[in-house]
Amino acid sequence: MPKTASRCGVEASRGAHAFEVADYSLHKGLGVVRFVHSATFDVGGYEWWSVLFYPDGSADTAEDCVAAGLELRTIDAGVVTASSYTFGLICQTTGEPWFVTESRAAEFRANTPWFRSKFMKRTQLEASPYLRDDRLSILCAVTVIKEETWLSEIRALPEVAVPPPDLIATLAGEGADVTFEVKGESIPAHRTLLASRSLVFKAELHEQMKERNEDWIAISDMQPAVFRALLRFIYTDSLPAVDDLNKEDSLEMTRHLLVAADRYAMDRLNLVCAQILSKSLDVESVTTTLGLADRHNCSVLKDACIEFIISSNKMDDVAKTQGFACLKRSCPSVLVEVREKVGKFGKI
């Protein structure tokens, strides 16, 4: 299934401004909400940002605190969104910044042009290394985002084509120590692998070596394509692709593999085939599949067929099929099971 992907985002600009406040002691006593401001600076294409410092605090801070604020000193910008703005102090000894406030988001508008942040207690500031020689430096970091989001064009994700397992092709003839003659076709294989996957193969290979000491075995009751599919399952635990077969031919191959699974006591292959066939039941095929399941000891498929017959409300149609007539002759005991599950089936 083709997959596509796209991506959206916003454009952001980042900037920082250091504002040095000299003669700190002279600014004390300006009064609450009175401030000094920095020169303007540019972030995000807006040239009128300014840092504010309130030595006696702002209206929303305690009287014993200093405060800092950020202002956009223009009324022409419309709405400007700052995804974050943070205030800090620069150590007068090391030059390293220490950010006092956490990152905050804000929208700057013409009627509310600035935002203030509680900074720190005045006594704490005056005892810190950030105030030396009666001066301090405030660092303000700003990230501005634009209102418009951008969307990349939809593109198809690259798909990595993984080839099917090729273990059989890789091992074909390489280290093979037994050959199966199937309807005139020679198919090489490996004894150890076959014996490890099927007790029946194990017994046959042991008997063949014991009695004839030959490296080939003849199989006369199976088509080469079916035997190759059986080997593929033994080697890879998967069935071969059937893209070149129509639906009915594919189901016929599955039926033959169900027979092979019973012959070689391969329970997992038996269940895989049962799953495929149970999903393909219809009025014409259900009795044929039921007889096959009964003859080859596939109880789950047998139950699925019986359930289909008694629950499809098409029992009269099923009874008219050629497969039903064959089932009555070859597997009458199966019909007894059906009658036991639903008494009215006996009317057919």
From TrEMBL:
Family indicated by similarity: Belongs to the Tdpoz family.
SMART domains according to UniProt: BTB
Lineage top rank: taxon: Eukaryota
InterPro entries in the cross-refs: BACK_BPM_SPOP, BPM1-6, BTB/POZ_dom, MATH/TRAF_dom, SKP1/BTB/POZ_sf, TRAF-like
Domain BTB: 176-243
GO biological process, one term: protein ubiquitination
Native source organism of the sequence: Panicum hallii var. hallii
Annotated metabolic or biological route of this protein: Protein modification; protein ubiquitination
Protein name per its UniProtKB record: BTB domain-containing protein
